[in-house]
Amino acid sequence: MTTTLLRTAKELHARARAGRRAVVMTMGALHEGHATLIRTARGIAGPDGEVVVTVFVNPLQFGAGEDLDRYPRTLDADVELAGQSGADVVFAPSVDEVYPGGEPEIRITAGPMGERLEGSSRPGHFDGMLTVVAKLLHLTRPDLALYGQKDAQQLALIRRMVRDLNFGVEIVGVPTVREEDGLALSSRNRYLSAAERRTALALSGALFAGQDRHAAQEALRARAREVPATRARAEALSAIGESRAAADTHAVATAVPGGPAAVRAAARQVLDEAARLDPPLALDYLALVDPSDFTEIGDDFTGDAVLAVAARVGATRLIDNIPLTFGSFGAAS
Length: 333
Fold this sequence. Notes:
alpha/beta, six-stranded parallel β-sheet, four-stranded antiparallel β-sheet, 10 strands, globular, disordered C terminus
């Protein structure tokens, strides 16, 4: 389809609108993860709606020593991919268009949730992110906006901002897209050498290890509940024959459903091994958090959670996460 490149909000506002407008916000260097967001937006907006992809490298999101100057700018390729994925418009404003008169004195503050995890590692990052998201929502005037779940904390903060400040827009989260080897798609993956990429696989490997441990424990608890009460729980669990439980049936028998501590331990083991590779993985954080506020969950937690990791491999910082559900006798898909 023909995709129109626009540089100003005035041009965008002049377009005739019939159906719903869906916006996908990016910093460019589009890849298959972005394409999935755009295709999802196209499906939701329908043939009568409009899909707008924003391309803007936001300087407020980059702290001292971060990669603003070397962040990839590939607008021609971005327009082509956006069009192939179903976008009607690529809106690529200048810094002056988004921030007339220079950096804004009044900004959105992310609050306590924005100071945890990514916010602790990158002070001010989420304030800059929310400020530009608010600006772009005003400039594009969408009915709905789509964001990837790979940036889980970002998505949670955008949802909170929209709710707390009464933005009239629907926020849609889209599952993380991964490469065949499990690495989450990211514009920063292109910075990795072949050896660094092999080490970087530990991020997704750690998450999958935690997910596997969670699923095994939930299954054990479900099986154990089916065993007659006249049999000792530890003996019953041993009889199940689950290889992962055989090493410590008593711990599994007494653990709460899902075992958050065991999930963390399984993931950390993979990361500890990666720290000894060449090149090594330098862990920033591993966290198992409540997605409503990104605080660590306790061992008695039930409900939805996010297992999140951030690390550096060489000069490249990467993040990843997966959703889990505790207390339901099954891992989230």
